Amino acid sequence: MFERHYPAIARFFRNKVDDDAGDLVQKTFLACLESKERIRGDSSFRTFLFAVAHNVLYKHLRGKVREGARLDFGLTSVHDLRPTPATLLARRREERLLLLGLRRIPLDHQVLLELYFWEKLGAREIADILGVPEGTIRTRLRRAKQLLEAAMTALEDGAAELRDSLGDLDAWAAAVRGQIG
Description:
Elements: H1 2-17, H2 21-34, H3 45-64, H4 78-81, H5 93-104, H6 107-117, H7 123-130, H8 134-155, H9 159-167, H10 169-180
């Protein structure tokens, strides 16, 4: 189980927490084992595992915020939580631009896009992970893509590179996925 799902779970954490990713992967698998009786038959184990990872990530990030501060993942981005350059394993400028753009959009949207593009999960599976209706996921995906495009546009100086990148976001995201995991 661990060997089969480790790369995807490590990739899930890598662009969000940098140095803490290894610990969070371990916590995810441990939490998964501890809650194995809660695995429902109506969704896949992979879906359950990403739901656990999602909960571990949010618990971790809440722990990093000052005592008493409220953290809204619908508004807060990884960049807001940890304002460091996001050049994680990205070799080409386009890849860095995508990673930087992802880190500047709200975390809820970043997680959604990464599950969709990099983990190849469908709206139904993501809905199971996040505990919201499938139609809501489809709406949020459209909004997340708009936010990513706006973030990348704000970061990009050269319009030609941006046009090339945004022209085939699916292929581009797949290339970045290959670089980080």
